[in-house]
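Appendix B.2, paired examples.
Example (i):
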Amino acid sequence: MTTTFDRTAPRDLAAELPARLSLTPKTTLAGQLDGAWWPYSRDLEAELPALAAALDETWGRITRVSVNPSRWPVVPRTVAVDGRVLHVGWFTEQDPDKLILLSYTVGRWDLLVIPPETEPAAAARLMAAAAIPGSVLAAGVLMANEIVIGRGIRDTGRREAAWEDEGGACMSPFGEPFGRSALPLSANGWR
């Protein structure tokens, strides 16, 4: 018996799907970030064309991109975007969770880069936080905060599961569940 798998390459997937973006609304409040981008993979050559195409109408023609190479396995020098060339640079001093976009005529924008493997709920929280006008939180701070929030959500889930596993019993200070007979009687005689 022969089994055939349809393995869509990240490059093919990224080309078919629109860029996942959350941009700061136009305002006079300047913040640390201009929004967030959640790529589908860590393949810059596949991901950047959709990002540039999505931003061309809003921000003008993007001509240069700067990344920290620690988050990208391969950083190409150039990427073809709609018949033109997008120049890609890298700097190890740059925040690893940030992408810098440059345009000769319009200016510079900084986007939080949400790792592709991020859970959808966490990505939604990060995209909303990065798009707050006038926010003073940098990309690294937002990512660190999300790690703490995610840990808290997981811990809460574990505590709720433990509660259910114990039959929803109240715990004594000594770690033993209280039985119903240990609870005081209420005014109507019910425990």
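Example (ii):
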Amino acid sequence: MRIVIAGAHGKIGRHLGAMLVERGDAVLGLIRNPDHADDLRADGVQPQLADLERLDAAALADLLSDVDAAVFAAGAGPGSGASRKDTVDRAASALLADACERAGVRRFLQVSSMGTTRPNPPDVDPVFGAYLDAKRAAEQDLRPRSLDWTILRPGRLTDDPPTGRVALAASVDRAEVTRADVAAVLLALLDEPAAARRALELVNGEIPIPEAVRAALR
């Protein structure tokens, strides 16, 4: 397969790109900063400059002509304000979905967040609230599309070593999950037709990832 990753230099994107390359897939990594290109090449990922806050859907679709599936793993990141939560976490996801529809790329995985299925708490930090609002809106944008989408909602992300064991279901108790385990679950979901049009929550748990994916998709 040939997979495009938006946010390919992010921590989840780097893990996923390396995993895809290791199993023999070709990976196109969308990046905004040209200084990140060498890191992707070292991972075996083909870098492609594409500022998702500036491109239009037609131009992005031209880059996806030979792509089989797309993963949206981009994010405005720590230190960004509420406005960039909207332009990256919401609008860039919608842009990639638009481009996939134009290019005929049906499979689409979106990295979202736990907390999008309920209203924000009244005492939520305003910037984190804007992040949840953006993720919630990105999910709502994706649902009516004809894409074979899957929404993955991780719990609080950590950089700990992967455990290979998770809890994965439509709803799970809030907890942490390593970014490496998120990438491994994305990899497993990518090949599962039964994952299409499903939204799943993810945290670290006790069940090996292949078994957890099979159980979640029954």
